[in-house]
Recover the amino acids of this structure.
């Protein structure tokens, strides 16, 4: 089938799913956190049925699951997981993409107020002559993760259109609320997701291959002080804001996000709410190294104990909860074939692998922890979580080719 037709199908699915706003809402603790994710899931359920998948279901949490029965003599059952939500970074939840045909290397005015500068985004110059999908400057593009959904759907469409191609048994799970703590992947019905291993397609430029992510935890420090009128405050007033100040001052500024890279971990104070009596401080802990990750948690407990000793009149409590684990910690001799297969396909397609430690996590970080090893590969997009996000269609097509070869269930 012609490359041009496949690219058109990729874009058709992508634009269709972009047209359904599905931004997740961190303030809503329900799953899914937004109605748009349910609406998108319903559309995907219908599309999966049209493509011939079976056992299609949408559970109470908005997780869409389906299965494509094996064709041929292969043995593997493989899974693909993609997330329904787009990220909330304070931009519009409505996405209005635009396609720049045969990009000429110049700066782009996305709208009257937003300018895409090649000086600030020099990576775009690698795509001169290509067709590129941009935002209109008012939102993220949503390639994270609707490019993955479109990729998977296009591959399923291609297999339907080519009945002579053998393939593995394919299990699909489209999950909500990945962007706000991998909540949706926890709601997969794993009795219906029996796979040897799985993949996510949730990272950036051509060639990125991820099987190492952060270990992640989130926490809250809660402080209840003692209020007092200034005329009687001496010896009585306990200001929760000043206690939080002491907590923050005992953190290592060199180990915060703005000062770290690659495999360097961090502690990040993300939010503070306070009045004269009660304070709540939220923070994240991240590290690729499990031992260092645990050491960071132990240090925060230690300084909290110190503050309790220093401010005996205050009520001070800290809560830390693990969010996801490093995918690499789940790789073993049996399941590493999932990564070896990716490397083999990259070589076959003449794609140079960019194996990097992801400074973040994917749904695979949770899936790998519960026994389904799930590495990750590229969508082809750049500038995720930004109104300068863009997706070169040629790289989008290369990601599709990787998915197609994986689904063919070739043995090493």
């Amino acid at each position: 089938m012609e490359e041009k037709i496949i690219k058109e199908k990729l874009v058709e699915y992508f634009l269709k799913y972009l047209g359904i706003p599905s931004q997740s809402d961190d303030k809503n603790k329900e799953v899914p956190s937004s109605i748009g994710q349910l609406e998108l899931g319903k559309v995907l359920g219908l599309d999966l049925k049209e493509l011939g998948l079976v056992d299609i279901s949408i559970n109470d949490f908005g997780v869409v699951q389906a299965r494509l029965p094996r064709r041929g003599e292969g043995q593997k059952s493989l899974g693909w997981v993609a997330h329904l939500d787009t990220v909330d970074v304070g931009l519009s939840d409505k996405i209005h993409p635009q396609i720049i045909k045969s990009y000429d290397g110049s700066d782009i005015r996305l709208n009257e107020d937003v300018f895409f500068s090649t000086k600030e985004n020099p990576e775009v110059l690698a795509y001169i002559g290509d067709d590129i999908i941009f935002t209109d400057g008012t939102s993220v593009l949503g390639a994270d993760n609707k490019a993955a959904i479109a990729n998977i759907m296009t591959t399923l469409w291609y297999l339907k259109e080519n009945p002579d191609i053998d393939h593995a048994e394919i299990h699909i799970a489209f999950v909500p609320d990945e962007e706000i703590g991998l909540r949706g992947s926890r709601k997969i019905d794993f009795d219906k997701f029996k796979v040897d291993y799985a993949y996510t397609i949730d990272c950036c430029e051509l060639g990125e291959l991820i099987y190492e992510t952060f270990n992640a935890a989130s926490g809250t420090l809660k402080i209840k002080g003692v209020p007092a009128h200034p005329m009687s405050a001496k010896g009585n007033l306990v200001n929760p804001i000043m206690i939080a100040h002491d907590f923050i001052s005992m953190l290592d500024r060199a180990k915060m996000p703005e000062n770290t890279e690659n495999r360097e971990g961090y502690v990040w104070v993300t939010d503070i709410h306070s009045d004269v009596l009660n304070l709540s401080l939220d923070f994240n802990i991240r590290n690729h190294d499990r031992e260092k990750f645990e050491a960071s948690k132990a240090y925060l407990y230690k300084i909290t104990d110190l503050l309790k000793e220093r401010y005996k009149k205050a009520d001070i409590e800290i809560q830390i909860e693990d969010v996801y684990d490093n995918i690499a910690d789940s790789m073993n001799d049996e399941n590493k074939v999932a990564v070896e297969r990716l490397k083999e396909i990259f070589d076959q397609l003449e794609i140079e692998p960019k194996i990097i430690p992801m400074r973040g996590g994917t749904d695979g970080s949770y899936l790998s922890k519960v026994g389904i090893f799930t590495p990750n590969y590229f969508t082809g997009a750049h500038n995720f979580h930004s109104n300068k996000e863009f997706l070169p269609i040629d790289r989008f097509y290369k990601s599709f080719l990787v998915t197609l070869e994986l689904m063919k269930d070739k043995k090493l």
Notes: The chain is about 30% helix and 20% strand.
